[in-house]
Amino acid sequence: MSSAPIGVFDSGIGGLSVLRHLHRLLPCEDLIYVADSAHAPYGDRSPHEIQARAEEITRFLTGQGCKLVVMACNTATAAAAGTVRAASPVPVIGVEPGVKPAAMATRNGVVGILATRGTLQSAKYGHLVNRFGREITLISQICDGLADQVEAGQTTSPATRSLLRRYLAPIMERGADTLALGCTHYPFLIPLIREILGPGVTIIDTGGAVARQALRQLREENLHPDTQRHGGLSVFTSGDRERVARQMEAFWEGAADLHPLPSIAPPAIPFQAEKISPPA
């Protein structure tokens, strides 16, 4: 089973920010990515809807023979990680807003968090704040519409810049020296965020930590292949394939097979690896 693929999913293409970290750290692993674009963004949906989608996609990925599933979405992790892990026959890793690493990184004790409404209003986020945010001043900023801008490929547009300025304003006014990105779409906006905030603010992207956790999990389960081969990428989407193909060209460097996501998980089929180059 060490040669089996790793499954990754998000409500759209935001999870590619996590996929890039996984491929850099684990270049020999085959990857299957599900872009649930027909239901993006999860941050605008009810916990019940998100849980149902997360469970169905996880069933699909394990049906494809995946040895590990990464929920590359903060909102899905907050709403469904517990139930998905309980039902999955393979390990499941989620992502969380970087409250802990931000609290450890701040020098002046003031931290900003950018995330979706679903993430910031979840019980899981409240638990994170109670556990790691008591000793800092935490400014939690709901960013309605920001993930949509990334989905549309508008990472540098005037509209995106205007949204970011509005959402970052209260964080800047409080003098935060650390900013955590609580949505996997937001790392694609880091250049614009740095331009607005300036060089003195530390930006926390938890994608690297997720990849390192995946490597630890695979080693513990003896599932990491000992090989120098380049892994392959296969992408499934519930949305418009032409649009997702354009998004892949913008946010991923390398080849990938693109397929429609079945509404019901099919029986496992052999994974066909395609050679891809490491992202820049």
TrEMBL record:
Its recorded reaction(s) are: L-glutamate = D-glutamate
Q: What InterPro entries does the record point to?
A: Asp/Glu/hydantoin_racemase, Asp/Glu_race, Asp/Glu_racemase_AS_1, Glu_race
- Cell wall biogenesis/degradation found in the keyword field: yes
- Catalytic residues, per the record, are C73 (proton donor/acceptor), C183 (proton donor/acceptor)
Enzyme class comes to isomerase
The entry's family comment says:
Belongs to the aspartate/glutamate racemases family.
Question: What name has this protein been given in UniProt?
Answer: Glutamate racemase
**Gene name of the encoded protein:** murI
